[in-house]
Design goal:
The chain is mainly β. It has one domain: HesB-like domain (Hypothetical Protein Aq_1857, Chain: A), CATH 2.60.300.12. The strands form 3 sheets. It has a 4-stranded mixed sheet. A 3-stranded mixed sheet has the order 1-6-7. The longest helix has 13 residues. It is globular, with a radius of gyration of 18 Å.
C-alpha cells in the first residue's frame, strides 16, 4: 500500500479593522483630552429601522470579550467578539462635510441602509 501525497490545508480568514490616518489623528486628539483613556472601542447597537448602528467610545482598557487591533503605534481599537463578524473588514475614516466632522464607516458586510442613514443591515450567516 503506498502513502498518499495529499495534504490538508487550513484556511484562516483575515480578521481586521482598518483606520485611516485622518481617523487616527482625530482619535489621538480626543484621547489627549480624555483623562485616563487610552484606546478606541467600536461596537454595534441594535437601532433604527434597518437593524444596527455604529457606536464608538474612548476606553481605558478592553472588556473581557473584546478583540484588540493595534492600528498605529500605541493606538488600539477594541471590537466585541460578537460584533466582529459584522465589522470585519471595516475601514474607519474621519471626514468633514461642510461644517460637520464625523466618523465614516466603510463596511463590506453592509447589505442595506435605512433612508435616514442611521442604521444598516447585514446578511448574517
Amino acid at each position: 500500500m503506498s502513502a498518499s501525497n495529499s495534504s490538508v490545508e487550513s484556511f484562516t480568514p483575515d480578521v481586521g479593522i482598518t483606520v485611516t490616518d485622518a481617523a487616527i489623528a482625530h482619535i489621538r486628539k480626543e484621547l489627549a483630552k480624555a483623562k485616563g483613556m487610552s484606546a478606541f472601542r467600536l461596537y454595534l447597537q441594535t437601532s433604527g429601522c434597518s437593524g444596527f448602528m455604529y457606536e464608538t467610545e474612548l476606553v481605558a482598557s478592553p472588556r473581557e470579550d473584546d478583540t484588540a487591533f493595534e492600528v498605529d503605534d500605541n493606538l488600539k481599537v477594541y471590537v466585541p467578539h460578537k460584533d466582529l463578524p459584522l465589522l470585519n473588514g471595516t475601514v474607519i475614516d474621519f471626514i468633514t462635510v461642510g461644517l460637520n466632522s464625523m466618523f465614516q464607516f466603510r463596511n463590506p458586510n453592509v447589505t442595506g441602509e435605512c433612508g435616514c442613514g442611521e442604521s444598516f443591515t447585514v446578511n448574517e450567516e
